[in-house]
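Here is a typical sample entry:
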Amino acid sequence: MNVSRRGELLLFAATLCAASGWVTSKYVLYEMPNSMFVAGRFFIAAALLLPFCFQELKHFSWSIFKNLIFVGALLAASINVWVHAVSTTNSLAEGALIMSLAMIIAPLTQWLLLRQKPSSAFWVSLPLATLGMMLLTLKNGWHFDPSLGYFFLSSCLLSAHFVLNKRVSAQLSALPSICIQMFVVAISGGILYVIDGAPSIEVSTSGWLYFALATLLATTMRYLTQTIGQGTTSIATASLIMILEPIWTLLMSVALFGSHLSITDTIGGALILLSLYVYVKLSRRYGN
């Protein structure tokens, strides 16, 4: 098997791991405070990755650490908002589709933060993505679902993280960068847990099992497979494969929670997936 094909298979596995995180997180958050879930999940995941990148981290300067802490704080904000949304929503599938908009939002974020104008692919895809998001979030007589608004806010924060992380990590290996940022996310969860008054918890055996799956499979394995896969695959190909994440999430949500999409939801989701596909294909064709 050639290197490129192996990378594609790893990315495919990453989409399954990422989708499982939506389901396992929903189960865990029935029993565990949001902040404790974030702190524990990301601290353990970072600790598991640390041995693989410790030697590289020893050579990082303080300025590099400061930059990684800053972008890690953006990731922490996105994750904490996402966890709140997951804990309150009855629409995991719709949330996953909205979170996938981060890739479409990123060029606009780059324009706002770094003054780099979006490509033509962005302007073609944006109307499709906007219409799809409106159909997903404004329903039941055009009544706005607050949890989907939180998913959109998390997606915007994630796009900002993507843009700035790409700039900060341009000359760094991916694994130590991710490890440091995971520790920052864990610390943010710990701070919020203390602010919440350090509530006591009673988690069942099944709850701890789902926590372990969310930590090992949906966090550690997801980032490992995604990082290695992206290293041997073109950006366009990787982006196309990662579009599978909301599809897997939808299928898992239907199978495990009995979720269903209305006709409006289905059309909205299809438009978002189409916008992502168009964006990636046009970017590949015109090289921007």
Remarks:
- Strands lie at 138-139, 143-144.
- The chain has a mean pLDDT of 84.
- Residues 62-88 form the longest helix (27 residues).
- Residues 3-286 form one domain.
